[in-house]
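FORM 12-B: Structure-to-Sequence Request
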């Protein structure tokens, strides 16, 4: 029976590369966080209160519609990532419920990145600085929805964010560099805590990872934490898959 894998970690922890390697080893299906065909996530999707006449309707939810527009179409509504946190969480929890209800547990493994922890903490903490209890309640609700299908969470942790992130930063395109630091430091959390520039971005990333790892321990989901400062996660992946194979074969 196929398994749902949820790959988490900070930018630069090599989530995408890890997920792609997992896909190859398991002959599974990997949905990146920006994949337009993602069955749950909503990158570049808008929530519209009145039924739109343009765009492609993906779902009717929370007395509104989720819509994706082509490049030249006028966008109406609000990007789902920019909605007030309470509304965003209701929409996403319902997306997860519908996904689990429709899930066909065939032989193919399904792999998501960022969907369980990164997106809730980026929106809730970085962008809107909502109370930690609200973010944790949201992730716990998603975990409860997912528990019946027994997913596996893999967190690629960075012990030395201050050393690793600047390396990752230098490897990325210029547009990503300026946009990332601007997003992190101009969001509500960065402003409220006076975090600025690269140093401020690193402080936010360190706190985000600390919160995510603390919460992960309390979720009712199986998980593995892989320290990946030296990018050795692929060796750990082989061990993890062997352990999973042994576990699932036990009577």
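FORM 12-B RESPONSE
SEQUENCE OUT:
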């Amino acid at each position: 029976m196929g398994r749902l894998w949820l790959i988490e970690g900070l930018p630069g922890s090599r989530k995408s590369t890890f997920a792609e390697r997992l896909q190859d080893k398991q002959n599974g299906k990997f949905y990146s966080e920006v994949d337009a065909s993602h069955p749950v996530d909503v990158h570049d999707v808008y929530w519209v209160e009145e039924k739109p006449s343009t765009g492609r309707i993906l779902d009717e939810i929370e007395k509104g519609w989720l819509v994706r527009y082509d490049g030249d179409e006028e966008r109406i509504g609000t990007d789902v990532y920019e909605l007030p946190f309470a509304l965003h969480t209701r929409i996403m929890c319902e997306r997860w419920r519908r996904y689990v209800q429709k899930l066909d547990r065939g032989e193919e493994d399904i792999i998501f990145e960022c969907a369980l922890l990164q997106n809730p903490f980026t929106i809730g903490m970085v962008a809107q600085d909502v109370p930690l209890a609200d973010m944790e309640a949201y992730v716990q609700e998603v975990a409860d929805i997912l528990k019946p299908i027994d997913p596996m969470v893999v967190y690629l942790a960075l012990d030395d964010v201050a050393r690793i992130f600047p390396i990752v930063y230098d490897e990325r395109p210029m547009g990503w560099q300026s946009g990332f630091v601007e997003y992190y430091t101009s969001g509500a959390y960065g402003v409220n805590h006076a975090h600025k520039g690269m140093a401020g971005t690193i402080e936010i990333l360190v706190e985000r990872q600390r919160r995510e790892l603390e919460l992960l321990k309390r979720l009712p989901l199986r998980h593995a934490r892989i320290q990946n400062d030296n990018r050795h996660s692929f060796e750990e992946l082989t061990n993890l898959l062997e352990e999973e194979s042994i576990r699932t074969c036990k009577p």
